[in-house]
Amino acid sequence: MIIKEIGGEFGLIRRIAELLPADRAEVVKGIGDDAAVLRIAPEPSPYLLVTTDLLVENRHFRRTWSTPEQIGMKAAECNMSDIAAMGGSPQWMFVSIVLPADTEVEWVESLYRGMGRSCQQHGVVLLGGDTTQGDVITINITLLGSVDPDHLCLRRHGRPGDLLMVTGTLGASAAAYALLSNGYRPSKYLLHKHLTPASRLDVSSRIAPFANAMIDISDGLAAEVRHICAQSAAGARINSQNIPIHDDVKAAGRTLGIDPVTWALSGGEDFELLFSVSPERLAQLKAQGCVLHEVGRITDAEDGILLMTSSGEAIPLPGGFDHFE
Amino acid sequence: MIIKEIGGEFGLIRRIAELLPADRAEVVKGIGDDAAVLRIAPEPSPYLLVTTDLLVENRHFRRTWSTPEQIGMKAAECNMSDIAAMGGSPQWMFVSIVLPADTEVEWVESLYRGMGRSCQQHGVVLLGGDTTQGDVITINITLLGSVDPDHLCLRRHGRPGDLLMVTGTLGASAAAYALLSNGYRPSKYLLHKHLTPASRLDVSSRIAPFANAMIDISDGLAAEVRHICAQSAAGARINSQNIPIHDDVKAAGRTLGIDPVTWALSGGEDFELLFSVSPERLAQLKAQGCVLHEVGRITDAEDGILLMTSSGEAIPLPGGFDHFE
Predict the structure, then answer these.
(1) Cβ atoms within 10 Å of A55's Cβ, excluding its own
(2) Smallest Cβ distance to A6: which of B105, B133, B324?
(3) Per the CB < 8 Å rule, is B126 touching A94?
(4) How many CB atoms lie within 10 A of CB A245?
(5) Lowest mean pLDDT among A3-17, A261-275, B137-151, B271-285
(6) How far is residue A263's CA from residue A72's CA, in Å, rounded to a whole number?
(7) Among A2, A54, A105, whose Cβ lies nearest the Cβ of B6?
(8) What's the CA gap between B317 and A253, in Å, rounded?
(9) Nearest 5 degrees, angle CA A116-CA A122-CA A126?
(10) pLDDT tens profile B160-182
(11) Looking at residue B289, what is its pLDDT?
(12) Of A80, B190, B210, B231, which sees the most CB atoms within 10 A?
């Protein structure tokens, strides 16, 4: 049996989690969220957050499309995004890297300079890692952070009646990728969103005290909505017309004959945040001046996970990216 | 300029460390030891340890030589070994993995079962990671642990006059690899040492309260002695005749016409511990019944790093493994 046949990446993760139970007192959350959460000192001491992300050449980045500095920044930011999604602050980074023997030292240094730029921006220090030789450049970053126990946003914290909010427009990275793959030149905005996406640590700490569930959008909106619903034992209703999409993404859709909503639902690496919040708490959050987009709401589990199309029809929510499908 | 030209893996690490300074109050030790050390709560609370190790198929393991369970155990144990070398206890594991699309689910589950066996033995829980698709199986483990500040053994803690001790015989893994590569069948002992090496967590916590510097032997004795000397600003004198070598390693040397001391000095993955200890403290430690081998002593930096050969000659210490040389 191959991985695709057991439900791809997420099926595999479920199996591994069942194989290796982690029921220990200090484990607030193990496998299955954006980061693991550990109670390492008595509350109200912050919890420790740990996340790890793997990037493989020609799958997550291409040396012909990106400068090493851009690759380094993106690798760092996708980990920063996981810490943002928990409501936490990133602190300490560890980088493991596979490099071909003929890699130029200057290329490697620029890669680390890119990571360093992201680290500096968020007050993170790089403290170690591992380097080894191999044929395919592979970068694994482990990022540790901390979170105030009262501000921790787990995927399972969603409640029926919560509004589902996103922090920015979606689909730009996927649109840029589609254009590049088809030989078109993306706009400056799209290229920026694809090559140097930024985590939303700039707003996550303001959102966290008000949000219930939170997750970062790295595999498309549909996959993330499903994660929140599965862990919160809830349903959801997403309004297609309310999904915020940038004009350049719409233009790319016209160029390629693709509905741009597809990119928002299934295209990865937006690194915006999706969170659920009660209507009352949302009013308080908005009073702080956060720019937010309401894309739907959490419903009861028996209502299922639905997309309201532009013609007013309710269909099962389509899409979501899986690394093994 | 390629990596080999700047001194291989260790030259590269030095450059990265210079590029990204990590001078923050909570950082007890960043890049350059077996694990990073963080003061996350006021002393006497334990320090947090973080280590990470990367294994690439056909470089660190072969699917034709090892069962997936053996590969999983070895991947876990080489991280356990880094925590042992700091004098600490392992706690929480995170596994990132690159898998080809056609990988059998059963193979992956056996791999994790192997990691799980090592984890269970040492009281470690697996709390997350990342999975992605790629052509070459690549496993990155990040292991967190804790250490009593009084028992922390850094590479820089070596002092002239300290005796240099190892916890077991050396060179078996390299001897098995050499036999296999040349079409010979290694003895059961050698095969075991190569395919399922074990960390020395069984003795490290007894050694740590007495030792000064400590390091695990993953790149051969010579490389590890040099690391301690470099960070302790010291020299060393190793007695070739005192390096403990198993009879099966000696037999392998005769088969292949190789001096088995070469394997002890340059062959990797023994996962025994090398530590430095004052003669007085060693007596106290030995009273506890630890089986230890004295291989040399730490000297002043100006005396250099020397090997006393079996003919009584003092030569610069040869050997040590580098992933880019």
Answers:
(1) 23
(2) B105
(3) no
(4) 18
(5) A3-17
(6) 24
(7) A105
(8) 65
(9) 40
(10) 999 999 999 999 999 999 999 99
(11) 86
(12) A80
Question: How, if at all, do strands A305-308 and A234-239 pair?
Answer: parallel
Q: According to the model, what pLDDT value does residue A324 have?
A: 55
Residue in B321, B322, B313, B208 with CA at minimum distance from that of residue B265: B321
Average pLDDT over every residue of A296-324:
88
Vertex A17 angle, CA A139 and A228, to 5°: 85
Q: Which two tokens stand for residue A151?
A: 């501000």
What is the per-residue pLDDT across A36-63, written as a single tens digit (0 to 9) for each? 999 998 878 899 999 999 999 999 999 9
DSSP conformation letters of A75-133: HHHHHHHHHHHTT-EEEEEEEEEEE-TT-BHHHHHHHHHHHHHHHHHHT-EEEEEEEEE
How many of the other CB atoms lie within 10 Å of CB of A21?
Answer: 12
Indicate which of B1, B3, B49 best probes the interface with A, i.e. most A CBs within 10 Å of its own CB: B3
pLDDT of residue B105: 92
Instruction: Identify all chain B residues contacting A7, using CB atoms and an 8 Å cutoff.
Output: none
Closest CA to B133 of A247, A54, A113, A49: A54
Q: B36 and A94: CB-CB below 8 Å?
A: yes
Q: Is the pLDDT of residue A323 over 70?
A: no
Tokens of A158: 């969603």
The interface predicted TM-score (ipTM) is 0.92
Distance CA B241, CA B236 (A): 15
| Neighbour tally for A218: CB within 10 Å | 21
Locus of tokens 């599965």: A230
Q: What residue ranges in B76-196 does DSSP mark as E strands? A: 89-99, 125-133, 138-147, 163-166
CA nearest to A169, candidates A251, A283, A274: A274
- Which residues in A lie closer than 8 A to residue B24 (C-beta atoms)? 125
Interchain pair A133, B45: CB under 8 A? no
Residues of chain A found within 8 Å of residue B27, distances taken between Cβ atoms: 125, 127
Domains and CATH numbers, chain B: 32-149 (3.30.1330.10), 153-316 (3.90.650.10)
Q: From chain A, pick out residues whose CB is under 8 angstroms from the CB of B7.
A: none
Q: What's the length of chain B?
A: 325
